[in-house]
Amino acid sequence: MNMAGCRMRAVAEQLGALWARSSKRGGCSVCAYSTAAQQRSAGDQTTVDDSTMDNQQSYAVRALEKKALKLEEEVRDLSERYKRALADSENVRKRTQKFVEDAKLFGIQSFCRDLVEVADIIEQAVEKATKEGIRDMSVVLSQLDGKLQGVFIKHGLQKMTPLGGEYDPYDHEIVCHVPAEGKKPGSIATISLDGYKLHGRTIRHAHVGIAVETHE
Question: Which residue ranges does UniProt annotate as crossing the membrane (predicted)?
Answer without folding.
Answer: none
